[in-house]
């Protein structure tokens, strides 16, 4: 897998790009407070699965107390295509990796390897 990440000069609010080796999946990753943050839509794209599947896994992760919601969820103000600002829920790397173990796909395994390098 040739996914590249050079974070030697990474600072808060920098965007990193994750792209699969063959290129069909590319995600702009928000980096802040030494972790990456993704929206639910980005998680769906990353793991190539449905919103309901991601939502169910997130619900189970919180119900089973695998992760604490207050430590892995954050709202970021984003500007939409219409120019309006919205508070959008993002999930940090802990949630991203936890979901990767639950989704169980090749792409999930590849992303876990990339993210933990």
Describe the protein.
Its EC number is 6.3.2.6. The protein has one domain (15-116). α1 (40-47) crosses α2 (51-63) and α2 packs across α4 (93-103). The chain has a 5-stranded antiparallel sheet. The protein is an alpha+beta fold. Residues 1-12 have low confidence and may be disordered. The protein has helices spanning 40-47, 51-63, 69-72, 93-103, 106-116; strands at 14-19, 26-32, 35-38, 73-79, 85-92. β1 and β2 (26-32) form a beta hairpin. The longest helix is centred in the middle third of the chain and has 13 residues, at 51-63. The two termini are 12 Å apart. It has 5 helices and 5 strands. Helices cover 40% and strands 27% of the residues. The protein is globular.
- Cα Rg: 14 Å
The helix/strand series, from N terminus to C terminus, equals EEEHHHEEHH
Number of helices: 5
Strands side by side in the biggest sheet: 1-2-3-5-4
In short:
With 117 residues, the protein is of the alpha+beta class. It has helices at 40-47, 51-63, 69-72, 93-103, 106-116, and strands at 14-19, 26-32, 35-38, 73-79, 85-92. It has one domain (15-116).
Give the topology.
Layout: E1 14-19, E2 26-32, E3 35-38, H1 40-47, H2 51-63, H3 69-72, E4 73-79, E5 85-92, H4 93-103, H5 106-116
Antiparallel strand pairs: 1-2, 2-3, 3-5, 4-5
Helix pairs in contact: 1-2, 2-4, 4-5
Name its key features:
five-stranded antiparallel beta sheet; 117 residues; 27% strand; alpha+beta; single chain
């Amino acid at each position: 897998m040739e996914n590249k990440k050079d974070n030697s000069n990474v600072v808060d609010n920098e965007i990193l790009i994750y792209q699969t080796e063959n290129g069909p999946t590319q995600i702009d990753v928000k980096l802040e407070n030494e972790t990456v943050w993704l929206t639910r839509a980005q998680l769906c794209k990353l793991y190539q699965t449905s919103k309901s599947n991601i939502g169910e896994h997130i619900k189970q992760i919180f119900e089973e107390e695998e992760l604490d919601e207050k430590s892995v969820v954050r709202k970021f103000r984003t500007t939409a295509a219409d120019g309006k600002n919205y508070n959008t829920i993002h999930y940090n790397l802990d949630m991203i990796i936890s979901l990767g173990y639950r989704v169980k796909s090749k792409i999930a395994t590849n992303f876990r390897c990339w993210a933990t390098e």
